[in-house]
Amino acid sequence: MLVGVPKEIKSDEYRVAMLPVGVEELTKAGHNVLVEKGAGLGSGIPDELYAIHGAEIVDGPEDIYSQAELIVKVKEPQPDEWPLLRDEQMLFTYFHFAADEELTREVLDTGITAIAYETLRGANGGLPCLTPMSEVAGRMSIQEGAKFLERPHEGRGILLGGVPGVSPAHIVVLGGGIVGKNAAQIAAGFQADVVLMDINVDRLRYLEDIMPANVNTLFSDRHNIQEQLRLADLVIGAVLIPGAKAPNLIAADDLKSMKPGAVIIDVCIDQGGCVETSRPTTHADPTYVVDEIVHYCVTNMPGAVGRTSTYALCNVTFPYVQKIANHGLMTACQHVAGMIDAVNIHHRHITNRAVADTFELEYFPLNWS
Questions:
Q1: pLDDT tens for each residue of 31-77
Q2: How far apart, in Å, are the Cα atoms of 87 and each of 73, 193, 347?
Q3: What structural domains and CATH numbers belong to the chain?
Q4: How do beta strands 90-93 and 70-72 pair?
Q5: Which residues are catalytic?
Q6: pLDDT by residue (tens digit) across 219-232?
Q7: Which is nearest to 188 in space by CA: 171, 207, 208, 166?
């Protein structure tokens, strides 16, 4: 199979979808790998390293998209890449369709098969390709929150851990999954006062057992959220419904009850965000202010730490790339647990129910069992 790895063109995206060791494994198995010139530089991987392990380095994205049967990326195809996609081609990347109807319809029209990292299920029912980036984003959320709470960034002028005689920041984490767990752990390390909220009581019991004493758990209902927003210096939005749009947990009117200069980090902005006033931002222009509340809604947070994120991502995605390249997508879906859940679009049909329901489009279940 001819596998292509283009350079990411999304704003401030420094990750790459394959490591040199992946190129070596594929070429040893008889596959050909095309890597776009400069694709790995943001992660500290020079073209020469890909080349010595068997990749052919090509000059531009056209060389990738015009030839490759399977394209492996990190972020969803950008508008400049849509015309390059070819009928019957496979694209394996993060899509987050439910947050972007235009992207969904454009990809449908191309005729490609869209295989989404974020909906691929592991043998235990988890989301193995989403987990490492959720870990990175959860940890980064506190790092970014600490920065934007500083007064020069229009924040409240709060040090997360306080100092002797001065209270620490009050941090509210909405969602106790991978993002929320990692955010709470890092916030606790800063000695902040942390409240971790979720609707799954069993998950809250587990988190209560493993978290340090300065992390308290609280059931996530409307009244508890409103009460915590009034107390919060920093809010982390960390909720997830796989494949679907994130639920709206914070209404525009709720901002009026928050402290001026408080910060919201909406980590789930890739799935539409959990705050009514959220809109996508970039690393180059990460924040904006609504009703004196600082909003940080960068859609590719892990892209800023490209080297860490690339290695963490490729560790989990490459085995699936191998399966598809070695056996074809249909066979991979038949023999790899949860692989079929990753196929969101196939033959101009939406094959993921959550995406179809989001836009009230027809759902066509795959039957490759």
A1: 999 999 999 999 999 999 999 999 999 999 999 999 999 999 999 99
A2: 17, 52, 8
A3: 2-127+305-358 (3.40.50.720), 134-299 (3.40.50.720)
A4: parallel
A5: 96, 270
A6: 999 999 999 999 99
A7: 171
